[in-house]
Amino acid sequence: MADIFDVVADTTRRDILGVLLSHHAAETTPGEVSVSAIVAELGLSQPTVSKHLKVLREAGLVGVREEGQHRYYHLDYAPLEEIEDWLIPFLSVDFEQVVADEVALAGDGLKNEQKAFAAAIGKAVADASHQVSAAVKEVAPKAWRK
């Protein structure tokens, strides 16, 4: 099986995942989209879409339902957990620096005490976010959280 990061690195595959996600809330057969609908929506050739769907299917990112000669694809969120697990630490580590940068951009109108206070709040929020993420990861099963 291909590395999940290599699979989602391709723009066309991300576009296909986006189409499937946009159809997820459909009223009839939620999330299922025919290959021809994907072809029409993205303006790509059928062989190109089929090639990319095969890669997505082999990576476990999509599932398929066959109905005669037609194929209906839907998202499978479970493999995205690996990306989520890798990404979460990056979202909270530099939060304090982002807040400090925003405070600096606000201009010299802020006093040093206010800048320090804003940085402390940013750090507290980042720490709390990281702790909550870690707690959820330990308690929750490895199923996609909707």
UniProtKB/TrEMBL annotation:
The lineage of its organism: Bacteria, Bacillati, Actinomycetota, Actinomycetes, Micrococcales. GO terms for molecular function: DNA binding; DNA-binding transcription factor activity. Pfam families: HTH_20. Keywords: DNA-binding, Transcription, Transcription regulation. This is Winged helix-turn-helix transcriptional regulator. Residues 1-95 form the HTH arsR-type domain. InterPro entries: ArsR-like_HTH, HTH_ArsR_DNA-bd_dom, HTH_MetalResp_TranReg, WH-like_DNA-bd_sf, WH_DNA-bd_sf. CDD domains: HTH_ARSR. SUPFAM superfamilies: Winged helix' DNA-binding domain (SSF46785).
